[in-house]
Amino acid sequence: MNTALRIEEVRLTPILIADPPLLNVQGVHQPYTPRLIIEVVTAEGVVGLGETYGDAKFLEPARALAAALPGRSVTDVNGLYRLAAEVCGRPDGAALGGDVGGLRGTLSADKLLLSVLSGFEVALLDAQGRTLGVPVHALLGGKVRDRVDYSAYLFYRWAEHPGADTPRDDWGAALDPAGIVAQARRFTERYGFGSIKLKGGVFEPDQEIAAIRALAGAFPGMPLRLDPNGGWSVETSVRVAHELRDVLEYLEDPASGTDGMAAVAARAEGVPLATNMCVTTVQEIPEAFARGAVQVVLSDHHYWGGLRRTVELAAVCRTFGVGLSMHSNTHLGISLAAMTHVASVVPNLDYACDTHYPWQSEDVITAPHVFEGGALTVSDAPGLGVELDREALAALHKRWVEDDGRMRDRDDVAAMRVAHPDWEQPVMPRW
Ligand code: GKR
Ligand code: MG
Question: Are 230 and 256 within 8 A, CB to CB?
Fold first, then answer.
C-alpha cells in the first residue's frame, strides 16, 4: 500500500451544538443537539473530515470502526462496509423503533450502521482528495453543475427555549401565517432562496394551509413545499393536496408508510409526493416505487450510507422515473460540504435541496458556507474544501462532556415536555 494513503489514526469528537426551538409533529428541538465529528489521519498527516449523527446509539459502532481502521487505505471505501459488518456488532433493530419518533423513518440495525459509516466514508473521500489534490466531486465522477440550489426551510418556532441558560437567536417566534411569511422574507432576502419548504404537522392542517396560502400570496410563483412528517391521515392528506394543488411543488410525507403514501398518491390530483420517511433504505424501494407511493425521494447521504451510495440511489431513481432531491437534518458545515459535492455530480437532481444550515449559529469549520442566490458554489479545492476550526470543536466537545446526559440524544418529545409537562408522544396520524 502507498504509505501516503495509509490510515494512521481516527479521532472521534462528539459535540453538542446550539439548536433553536423549531417545532415539528413530535415536539420541539432541544437547546443543544449532538453531532459526531470524524477525523481520519493518514501516515503523512493528512486529515480527512466527516460528520454524522452524534446520539449515543451511533457512538458505539463509530468507536468500534475507528479502532479497526488504522493500517487500512483511505481508498478502501468498499472495505469500510465489510469492516463495519465485522466489528460493529448488530444493534437490536426491533428495539430501535422510529428515528427521532419516526421523523427520519424506521431505524433498522442496517440503517443505523449506514448512518455511522457515512461519516467515515466522507472522511475517507476527504482524505483521498486532499492527498491526491482533487475535490471530492472528482472522486465521485466529476461535477455536472457548478452551483447547487438549496431551499429555504421554514419552521414554526418559539422565540426562545424555555428555561434559563439556553441559547437565543434573533429570529423571533413564528406561530401563524404572518410569522411564517416574515421568516420567509428574511430567508429569501438574506440567502436568495428560490423555493420554500414549511415544516408542518405542528398545527391543525387548516392553519398550515393558511400559512402556505399566505406564502403563495407573498411570493407569487415561488415553488412551495409542506412536510408534516407523516402526521396526517389519508383523508386529511388528500384534502390538503386538493386545496393546495395550484401552489405546491410537492407535498412531503403527508401520511405514514407505503400504504398511506400510496393511498394519498392515488388521489393527490397531480401533486407529487416526496419522502424522507417512506423510502429511506434500499429495501423500501421496490414496493414503494411499484405502487407509485412516492414521486420524489429526498436522499440523505447520512442514512443512505454515504456519497457513493447516494449516487447509486440517484441511478435507481432515474431508472424508475422517480425524482430526486435532498433531505436535511440539523447539521454543520462538514456535512453541508459533503451534500454539495454529491449534489453536484448527480445529473437528475430535480429540485433545490433542503438544508437546516441557516438555523445553526455554530460551526466547526473555519469559513462557514455562504449562500448566494439561494445556492452554494461547488468547491474545487482538494477534498471537501473545508478546514476544521479546532478551537470551536474543542468548545463544543467541552459542552458535550459537561452535559449531564440530557441532550446527548435528540429527543423532541422530552424537549416539548419542558414547556408542556403533559405532552405525550403524538399518536400518528395526529390529524
Ligand atoms: O428538524 O424537526 C426537524 C425535521 O423534522 C427533521 O427532523 C426531519 O427529519 O427535516 C426533516 C424532514 O424533512 O422530515
Ligand atoms: Mg421531510
Answer: yes
